[in-house]
Amino acid sequence: MRAQEITFLKLVQGDKQFQVPLYQRTYSWGADQLQRLWEDIGELVDQHLAGESAAPHFLGSVVLAPGQIQAGGVQRWLVVDGQQRLTTLMLAFTALRDHLKDTGDARGVDRVHRQILVNEFHEGVDHYRLLPTQADRDAYTACVQSRADAGGGDNIGAAYRFFRGALAQSHEAGEERWAATVESVLKDLLSIVEITAEPGDNVYRIFESINNTGVGLSQSDLLRNYVFMLLPKRGERIYQELWLPMQQSLGPKNLELLVWLDLVVRGHSKTKQSDIYREQQKRLQPLAGDEEALQQEIEQLAGRARRFLRIIEPAREQSPALRTALERLAAWGGQTHYPLALHLLDLLDAGRTTPDDAARALGYVESYLVRRLICQTPTAGLNRIFMEAPKELETDRPAAESVRRFLSGRRRRWPSDEELREAARAKPFYWSGRPPQRSFILRRLEESYGASEPVDFAKGSLSVEHVLPQRPAPAWFDLLAEETEPNQTPQELHDLLVHTLGNLTLTGDNSKLSNHPFERKQQILDSSALRMNLEISSAPRWGKAQILERADRLAGRATELWPGPIGGVKPTGEESPGWVELRAALVAMPSGTWTTYGDVAELIGSHPVPVGAYLGANTSVIGAYRVLTVEGKISPSFRWADGSDRPPPQELLASEGVRFDSLGRAHPSQRLSAAELATLLGRDVTQPPAHDPLPEGEDAEAAERFRAQLQENWPAAHPGVVAVLDFWRRQGGHVTYGRHEETSCFPMLDLGTSRQPQLVWPVGVYPVSGTVEVVFQYLKTRSPFDDTEQRRELLNRLNKIDGIDLPEAKLELRPSFPVGVFAEHGDEICEVLDWFVGVAALDLARRN
Questions:
Q1: What is the mean pLDDT of the segment spanning 317-343?
Q2: What gap in Å lies between CA 307 and CA 340, rounded to an integer?
Q3: I need a labelling partner for 266 at 20 to 30 A (CA). Which of 51, 86, 514, 709 fits?
């Protein structure tokens, strides 16, 4: 084998083809990996535009083996290892080419297409510079060919859509040379080690050896080894007195995090955690030979370790005010605030600030994070803001004032009081942040009532409850009908209100509350120890007016709890974050899907009318034609811009795979709800608690409740469902049930190994609403169904059954079919489940 470091352009140029062999898994990069790569690319682009010298970013290795060469054909290379990053970069180039097309750069389109993506003078499969496995091939070639179905519901399509969205969002910043710089970075500043096998090498053995390596050294391990190599005389004593206690108190992961934070607090704000060793080595190299200076460096690091422990374990902090501030940020979760918090503790221990001032500074950090979450401010760049803070803070002011001034900077987006009040009324708070963060905000709001006997939240098991239920009974819709606007249905009004802050509270009685009428909820909430629940129980009714009034009251409390930026005025001339989110949602939609103006309005906390007006005035927005009326029709007001050569929207949607009936209505199974759009954006969309499977074995009482509800609501389906569940048990599975009023049912299969527990379930059955959800969203994280091809096979097998019509574009979501299918097709469903169990069992045997 031979190896050389090479740029991506040099790797792929020429009449050659990279062929992914069948033993390779299908493309599997997800949003986190794509985001990390894009951030690395973005840093290189910024450095290039600023005129700074940018070192190439090392992506890793690609191991290639020579394939067969036919006369007049291309040189084929088998991709033994590295197909994930190779496929990712090719998809980035397809998205860049299509972005250049949208911006009118015809020469750029031609250059990228010919130079990177295709072998111009070859046809058939030889035309493609990269040829993925059979399972991924159609989705990949759709992107290269710019077909209407490019960007489908699988991982290939998701990566293409990710880069389309990232390019469009960054382009909006307005830098004229930006797209050209991205092209240069992708071609010339991404470094890959090309490892080439010789003819006759055992390619599969090479693949096995690469993917069965031991545990490598961490960045902190490498740094430790380097430092103590420079300490031949003092090393043993310093290790025992300083390094070992630090390592034992923090643990491996936090020690590595500390070594990175040490660099960031010193002003190296662009250092990535993967570059810790290299950057620390560069910093310490001049001290080689001076053991006294190196000892001082380790003493400083050990001091920072003690301060870092106060951040991750706030009980260690002596000052009550500062301890409370640290506890709140620890409860908030995440590591975003660590650089600034560590810098403040550095100042405190150096005598340059006071505990109370540091506590006020951290209070502003909490306020900044909370307000951004409530207002659903995009999180892009948030980590960088806090990494830049230590070197950017003004040093001639008190720490709290400096932090507030820094976070109030125009480009740092600290929402004003006005924005907070608007968001409390309209934004779907239930989809903001992570569940513990939503609970944290509601808990702090409850504490603001100053009850004489406050609730012990540490002991109470409280969760977020919707007062207006997510799945309301008909009586709730009768109530909402009294407050609808012209041409608005009660369901549409419900969707705009249900997840907003004014409709949410904390309770330990979710199972009792469920979707009961408000009168029954009043009785339960009236016995609550929480002041906010007593306030709700005193309302005469619970509809739009009451929800908005409560949102205003809570917003008033929030502005007192969490101060806003200096000036406190909503910025003028800035685009609403809602439109940024709208564009991100539309570009995230897989081809072959559609949504409605109401769904988009619910997602961004707006109203269908302004959403329609915005899209009507901005038809060039990617995916604007996919937003239809609630009936699934093209809006009469939607028109392409003058001079556009694009086909009519319905024709374009049909070419992507959307089906229309004779009245021009899109098929409802292909519609993406607001919750599904939020899921595609990576939001933590908490489902109704009744829909969460419980790995507790079978509960006879719950099973009886499930059967009774099924018999009452869907009697024709009852025998078929019971027979299918009995079949599932005979296959070695078990059944679990939800604990709430609609007693959902989940056929579970234990696929755990001695090293890793794992439960998997193909569907959830809901006996009142009469739906059967196919849980692709969960399956995609569980072997063997993390393989797109296996999920696609499950979808295809189900779709052969009359009455089931699951769109392929929802392979990452939770599409459903009617429970009535069980009435006549139970045997066919059993055949699909038998296949499901067989595939899972083979995978379990392989993993064991």
A1: 96
A2: 12
A3: 51
